[in-house]
């Protein structure tokens, strides 16, 4: 009976991890950026609003009476030996090398779609507007060509136009993304496995080098 409960628990966990998570980002000139994460049709979180709530209100700390803090005695910082530093540096290198594989899985499986970009280019006079319009076109389409090579993205809708009359620029951008959580779990597991494998190989090489060094010392 316990095995049945364990099996049901595993199936329930897999079912949850297979539910896609949706991301929506929207920005428009003169308005605040909105970032939403949605799961299913009813679980929706506004990340931008959550970030605002975490920020402290201006003047909140100024009204509070400041307490005089006693001066703390500075403790002498422990200096790391070259061996400790090299070991930590090796761990950092192993971690960065392992993250590459996991990040690749996330990038390939994170789908970007409904990409919309509308730019209205306006400057002080018509000549500057025309120059800025050409630069914006070159920058946007060059960035799109580069992003298309490594991102899993749908074809975006891009509209760039100059404004020689009102002199007001405008940026409207929105994009949606989709990721299945089990992909993120797989990426994390692959990163952890790669980190462990590289660390064990590095430790093995260090022990072998140390053993050879001791053997040479004994011979001399």
TrEMBL record:
Residues 53-65, 206-220 have a biased composition (Basic and acidic residues). Pfam families: DUF2953 (PF11167). Residues 53-84, 201-220 are annotated as: Disordered. Residues 66-80 have a biased composition (Basic residues). This is DUF2953 domain-containing protein.
């Amino acid at each position: 009976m316990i095995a049945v409960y364990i099996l049901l628990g595993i199936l329930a966990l897999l079912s949850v991890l297979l539910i896609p998570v949706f991301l929506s980002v929207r920005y428009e000139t003169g308005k605040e950026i909105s970032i939403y994460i949605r799961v299913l049709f009813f679980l929706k979180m506004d990340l931008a609003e959550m970030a605002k709530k975490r920020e402290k209100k201006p003047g909140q700390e100024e009204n509070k009476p400041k307490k005089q803090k006693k001066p703390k005695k500075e403790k002498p910082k422990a200096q790391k030996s070259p061996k400790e530093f090299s070991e930590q540096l090796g761990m950092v290198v192993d971690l960065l090398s392992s993250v590459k594989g996991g990040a690749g899985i996330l990038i390939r499986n994170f789908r970007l779609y409904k990409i919309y970009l509308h730019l209205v280019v306006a400057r002080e006079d018509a000549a500057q507007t025309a120059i800025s319009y050409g630069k914006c076109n070159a920058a946007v389409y060059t960035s799109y060509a580069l992003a298309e090579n490594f991102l899993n993205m749908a074809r975006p809708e891009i509209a760039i136009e100059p404004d020689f009359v009102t002199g007001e620029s405008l940026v409207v951008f929105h994009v949606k993304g989709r990721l299945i959580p089990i992909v993120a779990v797989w990426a994390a597991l692959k990163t952890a496995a790669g980190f462990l494998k590289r660390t064990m190989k590095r430790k093995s090489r260090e022990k072998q080098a140390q053993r050879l060094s001791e053997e040479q010392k004994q011979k001399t």
